[in-house]
Amino acid sequence: AAKTEERNAFRFYSPRMQADARRRIALASELRKALSESEFRLMYQPTVEMRTGRIVAVEALLRWYHPQRGLIAPGEFIPMAEKLGLIRRIDQWVLQAACEQMSAWDKAGLPPLRMAVNVSANWFGQANFVDEIRMLLESRRLAPERLMLEITEGAILRLGEEMERTLHALHSLGVGVAIDDFGTGYSSMSYLKLRAIDYLKIDQSFVAGLPDDASDGAIVESMLTLCRRLDISPIAEGIETEEQHRFLLRAGCVEGQGFLYSRPVEPDVIAQLLSPGRRQNNSHLRLVPPEAG
Ligand code: C2E
Ligand code: MG
Ligand code: MG
Ligand code: MG
């Protein structure tokens, strides 16, 4: 009886859901080839110092240019790569490519930036993770301070004791550690007591309701107080309006990122934005026109 029920239940899947399932299965097998076929590219989103509008960092964001399906967003394929055990190799590729880009900008004479790279728990949790990072930075002659690794609260939760060692090792190496999407995970805040976190990225879901939503306002202000008290540098994500920018600046947020300033863009756009002749001041919050990127 259970069998028939199962079979009948299947009929409730809409054609849409079936198409989605087919796409997922196809993508999963194609994802294995994407690395070797060089279908990945990095885009870079500027992070600005909110007070001055100056670019202080960029975040490397992965894009998959599929030969037939076109652009695929990381939100779709990263979770897939995690399940398939491919994320570690992908993250390694990303870190390598981001460091190469940093060296290229240095060689072109651009002012040094911090490079933010997202890493998943699968790799961050490996015993030799910190050694790999150290070796990569040494081989490229990059100061560890130039690199910032973004991990989510979920990743910290999954690591347990190993996490403490890894965080301290990264911290003493000088690599920046940021908690990404802060406030959206299920972990406790006890990891903050380790004093090994350098940045908190306030998730865009809390920024979205600013300045009118009282709950978002209260949450964001508390996060900023927490950062001040713990000597952590706050970065707000997903800033789309000048009103959000003003609220965050007044509340003491230090750095910001979002479509208001710039979408993720190609590396040559970053190079143009940083070129010595270009004036950087806060009279123009917008670095890149909204349609670009
Ligand atoms: P994230 O690290 O929190 O990155 C921020 C995401 O918000 C990016 O989406 C960015 O394009 C988007 N964003 C930036 N400003 C705004 C804004 O003002 N409004 C809105 N609505 N969105 C904004 P993206 O590039 O699609 O990346 C999604 C997520 O995929 C990232 O979230 C990150 O968790 C993951 N991801 C991206 N690249 C990598 C990677 O190389 N490795 C790993 N492990 N994960 C990655
Ligand atoms: Mg991130
Ligand atoms: Mg985030
Ligand atoms: Mg996110």
TrEMBL record:
Residues 24-278 form the EAL domain. It comes from the Bacteria. Signal peptide: none annotated. This is Diguanylate cyclase (GGDEF)-like protein/PAS domain S-box-containing protein. The chain holds residues 624 to 916 of 916 of the full protein.
